[in-house]
Every structure is written in C-alpha cells, then in structure tokens.
Amino acid sequence: MHSLSLLSYIVWDPMREIIKGIQPPVWYSVLFAAGFIFGYQIMVYIFKKEGKNPLNVDTLSVHMILATIIGARLGHLLFYEPEKLLANPLVFFKTWEGGLASHGAAFGILLALFLYSNYFVVAKWSPFKFKFIKQKREGQSYLWIVDRIVITVALAGAFIRFGNFVNSEIIGKPTESDYGVVFGRVAEERFEKSSLGFESVEASKGYSDQRLEPGIVPVDLTFIFENNQISEAQAAQIIESNVRSILVSDPNIAEHYVQPNAPLDYELGLVDRKMQAVVHTWGISRHPSQLYESATCILLFIILLVIWFRWKEKTPEGLLTGLFLIWIFGLRWFHEIFKENQVAFEDGMTYNMGQLLSIPLVLIGVFILVRVIVLSKKAKE
Predict the structure, then answer these.
(1) Where are the domains of the chain?
(2) Calpha distance 15→27 (Å, rounded)
(3) Residues 6+ apart with CB under 8 A from 230
(4) Is residue 29 very low, low, confident or very high in pLDDT (cuts 50, 70, 90)?
(5) How far apart are CA 37 and CA 58, in angstroms?
(6) Which of 67, 80, 86, 353 has most Cβ atoms within 10 angstroms of its Cβ?
(7) 3-state secondary structure (DSSP) of residue 205
(8) Interatomic CA distance for residues 18 and 39, integer angstroms
(9) Tens digits of per-residue pLDDT, 70-116?
C-alpha cells in the first residue's frame, strides 16, 4: 500500500488579491513595490555611511523605477513576442496582460545608471521642456553606483520571484516525483468564474493509495454551491457533467491537473446548509522554480551586503557588479532547466531564450571581475 508523506508535495492556492473581492492591490504588486521601498531605504543608508548626499537617492530611484518597468516590458516584447510589438506598438502599455523580462530590466538599469552617473536632467523654461547636461556626479562613478544598486536589486529580485510564486506564474517543469508543488488556483479561478453556480472552490491535498504515474499526486477540489435550494440530484448532474468536462478538456487546467477519462470520484453533502461536493482528482507536481530563484537572490543579497559592510567606500569598483552578474545570470541558466518555456517557439530550441540572454551578461560580469583583479594587483605593485 502506498502512502504519500505529508511533506512530499503541497497544493498552492493563495488568493491573488490581498482582500478577496478587491482586485487592487494584488500580492504581486505589493511585493514588487516592496522591493523598491526596501531598496530605497538601503541606498539612503549606504549614501549616508559613505558621506554622499542622501537626497540623490530620490533621483536615483526615479531612474531605477522607470528603467525596471520600461526595460522589463520592452525586453519581454522584443525577446519573446516581437511580432505582437510590431503589429501594435501600443501593446507595450498593456502591462495588465503580463509580460516582464528580467534581462530587459537588467539592460535598462545598466543604461539608466549610466545616465544617472554622467548626466543631469534639468527643466528648461518650463516643467515640460527638459535638457540633458553632461556632468559626472562627484564621487559617484558609474561602477560605484552600480556596485551599490546591485545589492538592492538582488533583494528586489527575491521579492519579485516570490510574487511570481504567489501568482502561480513562471511555473516549473513536472518533477515526476511526489516532491513539488501543485498550482491549484488555476482550477479554482476557472470554476469560480464559470456560470455553474459555485460560491467558492478550494483545492487541497488529497489522500489516496492509488497511483496513476510518478509525479501525478492526489488533489481534492471542494465545491460550495451558491443556491441553498439545489437538490443533491441537481448538484450531482453539474459535477458529473460540467465539472468533469472542464477537468478533462480545458487546456489551462490540463497544465496542472490530470483527470482520467472515467466517471468522477466525488462525495456530496450539506455543510452549513449549503451543498458541498468534494471531487477527488489528480494534480501535476511541479518544481517551485520561482522559490529557487528567490532563495538564490536572498543569498546573493546577503553576500553583497556583507562585502559592502566589510569595505564600504573602499570596496573595489566593479567587484559587486561582477559578482552580481555572474551569480544572477549564471544561476539563471541553471534555473531555466527547471522552468517551463515562456513561449512556444522556445520548445524547438536547444537552449531557451532566458539561457541565451544570460550569456552576454555573464560575460560582462566576468570581464568586470577580471578587471577588478588586474587593477587590484597593479595597485599593490
């Protein structure tokens, strides 16, 4: 007899909204913003400790926010959906449809910090007319500012990837074992938005000694009907016909659930005077790839912060930047092994777009780190 461990897999189904029924703000938005808020406080602390004007952090934050959002959105469209951008450039502004690329954000941030370090933007005659004045910020060279920013970016990356986990997006590949995560909310949302009369639907871990195949694990879907007067026969008809049809044929649900082409195994009963149905089905156990990336971002944040605390203003210029690029995008290559491809054209590629885009950034990191080592040796001679 087979018995699944309580710790072998989890069914992940948090609410997208912080308060049910209220769309904004959603958890992802809050976590995204938290990355900037904590990053702002860290940069103020760093500027004060190194004798820089902390008011510059306000200007720096504007550069970072715009670079991250514009770079990530434009990067996604250019790298993953160029045909959509060419067909309708205004799709850039449809951020609610999703689509942000960390590689695009990286290139955007590197450019924005160059502008911050080398140019001032001032209003000319009116708030609506601007011009760039080429003037380096004293004591804030390009590599100096990038070295400090990557500390906060590593922390923001942890927040953002956890936000992806909460959103059940950028999912991992099937583990083909009992270990992993079943992203249960996909079915919940599908049924709650249907016209079948459900007040709520909740996915939870199921318990069964039967096995279909490795990585296919028991999941229970609990349906609460809105109509207090619905009969048991009517509820059974909805479950056996409509629910079963959706579980078997809906392609989005099929990414996370496996329902054999057989009669549903379910139970009906009254709970608090409302009809409840518990459907015993199966889920696909997947790698929590978002958490893998979030954990490595937190570890990198700690490493970079410890190095900065060790040397502060004496930190060799480029050291933190080189480490950041090699760590983040070197591990990105590894993380992609556990993630599903984002777009269909990647399925025919030996290495997906995320891996290919990581190569130049890792090489830049290696170049910067070698430069740091060479300059450090020369300084000691």
Answers:
(1) 21-171+288-380, 176-284
(2) 8
(3) 197, 275
(4) confident
(5) 11
(6) 67
(7) strand
(8) 23
(9) 999 999 999 999 999 999 999 998 876 778 899 999 999 999 999 99
